[in-house]
Structures are given as structure tokens and as C-alpha cells.
Amino acid sequence: MVSKIEEEISVREEFVLCGKVETQVIKCGPWTDLINDQNVNRPKALIFVIPDPNAQEIKDTYGLRGQIEHKIAFLRTHVPKDMKLIFIGHSLGCYIILQILKHAPELPVIHSFLLFPTIERIAETPNGRIVTPLVSWFRYAFYAITYSVLKPCPDIVKSWLISIVFQVINLKTEFPLTNVFQPFCLVNIVYLAAQEMRNIMKRDDEIIKEHLSKMTFYYGTIDRWCPTQYYEDIKKDFPEGDIRLCQKNIPHAFVLRFSQDLAEMIAAWVKDNLSKIEVMTKDTSPCSQDLCQ
Asked: In a 3-state reduction of DSSP, which class is residue 12?
């Protein structure tokens, strides 16, 4: 069954200009232009995945606020207004989802899945207490070392190093990840992390309350970025919400070893929520189960 799905569903990498920034988009499915393609087989829902990290010009694109504006701009520019949306966020992506719901209330969001959500008090978490001083006090030293060591390093050497790392952790990817060792990318990661530690403090209960019926939270039991105390707090404040605690000891960085487990779990959740499309649309024809990511 798995091999059949892999043969039928195409996955490809594209780059689009969004907020005057070249943006990588990984698409799953045969569709190329959702806005201009009016084919009857066009999907009725779009799954928009926001990992742990548009026509307007965006200031501070690689900062926390800029990343939020970038995602909103992408959805407004490249996705049809009547396209129903399912959000899936991981870590910081969950915070971005909350901000999208807050600042773009016109988007027709069916459901949001927030995995291992770092949506509050990041600097106070076990990992946050370690990372905060590093990205705050030693950020510029890291910049200097990164550029002096990696800038002159040939891409072939970077690719070889990445392949060795991936073999050690037994991780497979369909696309080259040489950007991981690009100084520009590493510097922006640290820059964004510094803003996360400083700015993500209080949980936005107002937006959670407004969209609670269309949200699923998934917390980990061994997550050093989001301790179980945060799960207990939100569960206490929103007892009627769909707030779950992982029982499989899956770590925060699940993509390294548990990507298949999470994929199967999320697929089941999405399938349960697809019925909402028929309720929200005037189209009386059977809901297509084709999804575009």
C-alpha cells in the first residue's frame, strides 16, 4: 500500500517570489497553479505545513514578525480565497499558526494541528535556559566563526558532510540540503532563535479560545522545549479542547526517527476532519479526498 501511494503522489520542489524573497515550496500532488486551474478535479482543501523555521514587501523577513507576515502573504497571494485550509505546525510553526489565525481571520481554515507547540515561555524551558544566553550573548561570535569557516568551504565538501550526518542518524530526504551549511542560513536561524527566546512569552489564550473547536494540540512527555507542565496548564484552562499528550515517548525533533509515526497519526486526524469541507462549502458534489500540500 505504501509503495502504491509513493508511485501515485508526486513530490517536487519549487521556488516562488513571496514578499520579494525567493521562497522554497515543497508540493505534494499533481497541481501546479491552484488559482488559475479551475479543473473539476482541483482539490477542495490545501494542507499547509509550517515547520520549525505575500506580494507585499516584508520588513525583517527572517525575524519572527517577518516570518509570520511572509506566511500570510503567501496564502493571500498563491492560494485561492475559496480554498479550504488545514494547518499543520511543529514547534515555532504552531506559534506562527496562532498568529496567522489572529491577523488573517478571513482565511477559511478547517482545522489546525499543533505538534509539540512552542507557543509560550520558551526561554523558561530546559532547552531555552541553555539556548537563550548562547543566542543572546555569543550570536555575533557565532556569525564570525560561521562565515570564516563555512564560506570558503566548497559545496561538494558540505554535501559530503551532510550525507555522513544523515547516514549516522539514518535520515532520508528527497531534496539536497546543502543550505544547512550555508552561513547565510545558519546566521538567520540564530537570529530568529534570539527573537523567539525574547518575544514568545505569554500564551495567546484569546486566539486559542476563539478557534479552540478547530484545533488539536499534541504535547510530548520528553519535550525539553515544551515541558508537560505546559500541557497540564493549557489542559486545565481549556478542558473542552482537543489537547493530547503523547504516549509513545516521541521527541520534539520527531523528524529524525519518528516521521513515519507522526505522518500516519496526522493522516488519520486529517481524514477525520475532511468531512468538514462538505459542511463549509455549497458544492453538493462528493468531497474529493485529493489533497495538495
From this structure: strand
CB distance 30 to 10 below 8 Å? yes
Q: Catalytic: which of 252, 261, 272, 290? A: 252
Known active-site residue 252 = yes
Q: Which of 223, 233, 283, 285 is catalytic?
A: 223
List, for residues 3-56, the tens digit of each pLDDT value: 344 445 566 666 666 666 667 676 666 666 666 666 656 666 677 676 655 334
- The neighbouring-strand residues paired with 16 are 23
159-183 pLDDT, tens per residue? 787 778 777 766 666 555 666 677 8
Domain span holding position 104: 2-121+202-280
Per-residue pLDDT band at 146 (split at 50, 70, 90): confident
Residue 145 within a domain: no
- CA-based angle 35:285:113, to the nearest 5? 60
Q: Is 204 a catalytic residue?
A: no
Residue 52 sits at φ, ψ, to 5 deg, of -70, 105
Q: Is residue 186 part of a domain?
A: no
Catalytic residue among 52, 91, 111, 112: 91
Task: Give residue 174's identity as a one-letter amino acid code.
Answer: E
> Does residue 183 lie within any of the structural domains?
no
Number of domain units in the chain: 1
